[in-house]
Specification:
Layout lengths: L3 H4 L6 H8 L7 E3 L2 E3 L11 H36 L5 H22 L3 H27 L7 H11 L7 H11 L4 H22 L5 H22 L12 H9 L11
Antiparallel strand pairs: 1-2
Helix pairs in contact: 2-3, 3-4, 3-7, 3-8, 3-9, 4-6, 5-6, 5-7, 7-8, 8-9
């Protein structure tokens, strides 16, 4: 049986072209002025920037369809807690349990792509550190709901084994700060696009000036996918770029791994 790459050797899909352009499936990639894994194919269908744009667009689309529903649900859960007039510790505990279950569901979804899983957990840990600092500052000024800090502590403790994923942490913190759901999800989608463009710039795949144009283009895609995914049922949340998942899985077997993003 012919290999997957052999089947695509005649007319490879755009996203596979993008993967090849990034050097993950065998073509060349420029890193700090040097190249690895051979020369990138030439021709009108192999323009590096076109392939890069398609690759980055795939990242934004798959992150949005897969993780924005979880950020949206986390925001809903915490908003309901904030609006509870009783503000009891029991309500905070129930919310922490629901967030833990939500996080475990996303953990299962991301488990098959370990680099993405690790990056998501690392992002969640960073958001929690920022959240703890912000809620402490708000409490010292007399602002914020009294259940915010206990909720953060309980969720962090409950998710200690799996780690708290970025999407859940982002939605939770946005609600704690009283931000509208639309703004929180737009910010999450935009940060995904910004992170992808930043990584491409650091890898010397695109220059800083061209990166501004690409970021502007991706920002529109990010906002659109955030709007269309925020009411998506959790059982419908899924990645939409299987080739991208394949590329992510290949990261751990590369001879050279540059950094995590």
């Amino acid at each position: 049986m012919p290999s997957l790459l052999h089947l695509f050797s005649v007319v490879p899909p755009p996203r596979l072209q993008a993967a090849c352009q990034l050097g993950i499936l065998g073509a060349g990639v420029q890193v700090a002025g040097s190249s690895v894994a051979g020369d990138a194919p030439s021709g009108p269908n192999r323009d590096p920037e076109v392939a890069l744009r398609e690759f980055l667009r795939s990242i934004v689309l798959t992150q949005g369809r897969q993780q924005i529903p979880y950020a949206s649900e986390a925001h809903r859960l915490v908003t309901e807690l904030q609006e509870d007039p009783s503000g009891s510790s029991y309500a905070a505990a129930d919310c922490a349990t629901a967030l833990h279950e939500l996080n475990r569901s996303l953990d299962t979804l991301l488990a098959s792509v370990s680099p993405s899983h690790r990056a998501s957990v690392a992002a969640g840990a960073g958001i929690v550190r920022v959240g703890e600092s912000w809620t402490q500052s708000r409490a010292s000024l007399g602002h914020g709901h009294r259940t915010s800090r206990p909720l953060l502590r309980e969720v962090t403790t409950a998710t200690r084994v799996t780690g708290l994923h970025g999407a859940v942490a982002h939605g939770m913190l946005g609600a704690i700060l009283g931000l509208p759901r639309d703004a929180v999800l737009d910010a999450y989608a935009y940060s995904t696009a910004r992170g992808a463009v930043n990584a491409a710039t650091r890898l010397n795949l695109v220059g800083p000036q061209r990166a501004v144009a690409i970021q502007t283009e991706l920002a529109e895609v990010a906002i659109e996918i955030a709007d269309s995914s925020q009411f998506l049922r959790l059982d419908k949340a899924a990645g939409v770029s299987p080739i991208l998942d394949t590329v992510h899985c290949a990261h751990d077997v590369l001879e050279l791994r540059l950094f995590r993003t």
